[in-house]
Prior knowledge:
Elements: E1 2-4, E2 11-13, H1 25-31, E3 40-41, H2 44-47, H3 52-67, H4 69-92, E4 100-103, H5 106-122, E5 131-135, H6 140-149, E6 156-160, H7 169-183, E7 190-196, H8 208-217, E8 222-226, H9 238-241, E9 245-249, H10 250-253, E10 261-265, H11 287-292, H12 305-312, H13 318-341, E11 355-359, H14 369-383, E12 385-386, E13 389-391, E14 404-409, H15 416-432
Parallel strand pairs: 3-12, 5-6, 5-7, 7-8, 8-9
Antiparallel strand pairs: 1-2, 4-10, 9-10, 11-14, 13-14
Helix pairs in contact: 3-4, 5-6, 7-8, 13-15
Amino acid sequence: MAALHPCNGTVTTQNPEPEPQPITPSELRSEFSHHDPTIARINNGSFGCCPATIIAAQQRQQLLFLRQPDDFYFNTLKPSILQTRRLIQTLINADQVDEVSIVDNATTAAAVVLQHSTWSFFSSVFQAGDAVVMLHYAYGAVKKSVQAYISRAGGHVIEVHLPFPIKSSSEIIYEFEKALQRGKANGRKIRLAVIDHITSMPSVLIPVKELVRMCRDEGVDRIFIDGAHAIGNVEIDVKDIGADLYTSNLHKWLFCPPSAAFLYCKISNELLDLHHPVVSHEYGNGLAMESAWTGTRDYSAQLVLPEVLEFVSRFEGGIEGIMRRNHKAVVEMAQMLAEAWGTELGAPPEMCSSMAMVGMPACLGIKSDSDALKLRKHLRERFKVEVPIYYRMPVEGEVDSMTGYARISHQVYNVVEDYYRFRDAVNKLVKEGFTCAVLSD
């Protein structure tokens, strides 16, 4: 490649960067050889995964800091965080890099947003009784955060109760519209909507664009999308989605080490006063700068995104190809399990991401959240299968209904034998006449 010499104007020839070589099956196995080989690990959704090359890149960053902390702080950390923000800006189609802040995780991002809403109540910008709308299936930590920040400040919280199993996105839209109308009853104003892009448990892909549009039509002040599972799992275009705020974890489906996440904030006068809940020396310099330094800690997980993008470029189609193949594989495995157990999926394939809910045989006797947790432990300890189990409370009048669902994930390290082991373990339990009642706490 020809380039103009900056000093004398002569043309020199530069060697282009070599193209990444496609990853081979043996290299892929090596990247995840630190995983426990005895476990069928079909729960990428909870904690994600990190390839060996990214772990090595993180360790290089850690050693750079430990070698000369002052130099790292003054000359490496801020430009490296800025580089991560620029890469995220491109990945999510944000207009400006100043709209992107790097935080530890989606729970931290929720604290940033909800703390701002609390101040709005305390400063009388919001009035006592003004409403916040959120999904009943919102992540537990986010629901607790709403309780801690909104309810205690005098806000009225409205939960959108969604059906499960679910047949189509129209059911979500219908229930959400009803909740918006409840929120506006008696002259109340809806100040904030918290909407999951992909619910955690049960896992369902939510029609966020449609719900954001409904919120705009109903005059909701601010819209926050909790996309904790989203980046690396489904496409994110924040301008197309149209929400004011959006967060996602980089360590769940985008191969970063824990913990790293981003918070997108569309530039507007009302939202410029967001602050990180940890106040440090950067307070008052904007959320992105406040988040980039919260005191002495390990920031290395937030600095390896360039290496992550190089890693995913070795797969056919890059991250988009990985997402397509993960979705196709998890649906196929879910359908295989449902057929083997005589059950059904908790949502249609188009409402699954790289995770899917599969009904478990009713004879297992999953009758509570405690039963679901005990069965998960039993599967791990006896059969070496790691998979979350969800308890669905039966609707009044249901008899012998499916009350237990497994949330399976698919990531690049998974193989079909992982799901066969799970299938065979459940079939063995059924054949033995097992029920959750025999398990002790």
